[in-house]
Amino acid sequence: MRVLSVASECVPLVKTGGLADVAGALPAALAAQDIRVTTLMPGYPAVMAALGEGRALRKVDDLFGGPARLRRGEVAGLDIIALDAPHLYARPGNPYLGPDGAEWEDNGIRFAALGAVASLLAAQPPRGLAFDLVHAHDWQAGLAPAYLRFAPTPRRTPSVFTVHNLAFQGKFPLALFHRLGLPPQALAVEGVEYFGTVGFLKAGLWYADRITTVSPTYAAEIRTPEAGMGLDGLLRGRAGAVSGILNGLDVAQWDPARDARLAAPFDAALIGARAANKAALQARLGLDPDPDALLLGFVGRLTWQKGVDLILGALPALLAERAQLAVLGTGEWGLEEGCRGAALAHPGRVAAEIGFDEGLARLVYGGADLVLVPSRFEPCGLAQLCALRYGAVPLVAHVGGLADSVIDANEMALAAGCGTGLHFSPVTREMLEAAIGRAAMLWRDRDAWRRLQANGMATDVSWTRSAARYAALYRSLVADAG
Prior knowledge:
Elements (H helix, E strand, L loop, with lengths): L1 E5 L11 H14 L4 E7 L2 H7 L3 E6 L7 E8 L2 E7 L1 H4 L17 H17 L9 E5 L5 H7 L9 E5 L7 E3 L19 E2 L2 E3 H8 L2 E4 L2 H6 L10 H6 L4 E3 L29 H12 L9 E5 L8 H6 L1 H6 L3 E6 L3 H13 L4 E5 L3 H10 L2 E4 L9 H7 L3 E5 L2 H6 L5 H6 L5 E3 L4 H16 L1 H13 L5 H18 L1
Helix pairs in contact: 4-5, 5-6, 9-13
């Protein structure tokens, strides 16, 4: 089976979030299921530089205001088709924002082009490159299922649309519709119209044959008014087409036994070597060199969604337990300043690195005793998977993929020997403080803590099970399509 994956970012070429990790890791996992994946992505400067000349597949004389070419090549084991359209993608900045941090005004056109070309490749494939199914990711590829639905072809290619985060919806002025080349009937409530705008995410949800999210619990949450962000009615109406498939990690890339960015690589049999990573992390961040202090780490975006304000609010309770805190990330200005201020107010106990450093992130996972993931909502989350893989105990909010991937070490789980971390709910400062207190109590029982670490490192966080579920979904759709 051959699948066309449509994504706006993909590791190792371009990354702003977890979408890139999925787009980069899933193809190799699916290859074990006898599924070949080709990834279509925009020809950003970094993509074109990595691809080089590639192999020319097709020219498009006028793609929303300029010429474009499709070039194919292999990068880091990935089969890539780059949409080389300089008028749309040959720009500085990240995929969505200019150097000034503002969104590109023509983002609607830039990502409509991605969806339109996906449909073109499916309906009129290059010689020897016919696709059985299109898998579109997030709002940036949301128009691909719409273009596929209206493509003038005798055989319609089935589509899967994956929601990585419902909060990012790709809404654009209604006037854009007349440039998209979709038929008039698509501009309807039962189509791309969304509260007086053109909704790219909504289009994917409406026109795709199947909808997946990146965890089962998130698939249920987004069908409620509390978490549906205005789309819960549509999702309830399509409940039979919605499922959740938990994300995994590329365990070859995330391997503490072979990670050269750690001070001391280790595995489950040599978990005592983590102490050297803890000491290295404390030294690098200027924390007190105290091996007995419970060291909590946070790696991620400094945003309200990620619950960083809850961490700052719980700081007195954390410090009362003689614990330390290491924060790595960037995000909302007020939360960045809050983290800087906490570090200045509590030298040796709190450290904040504003920005992102992959090596330091690995050291946090490999050296912190506990990793905080107090998200108010979390489609899947990767931090808790990295923590499990690297022997840190994850403390997570009981939401979305966090609830699905971490087993709470409650009294019964501890007795059964199956806990891998700690949950808290509801997502409030008070409940986070209580969870930190529970973690500190477990930390003082080093045998219990080692069992949690061992359980976590034994957890299969790879793509193996999830890839099998995607493969089964693909085969079912292709069989139904005849």
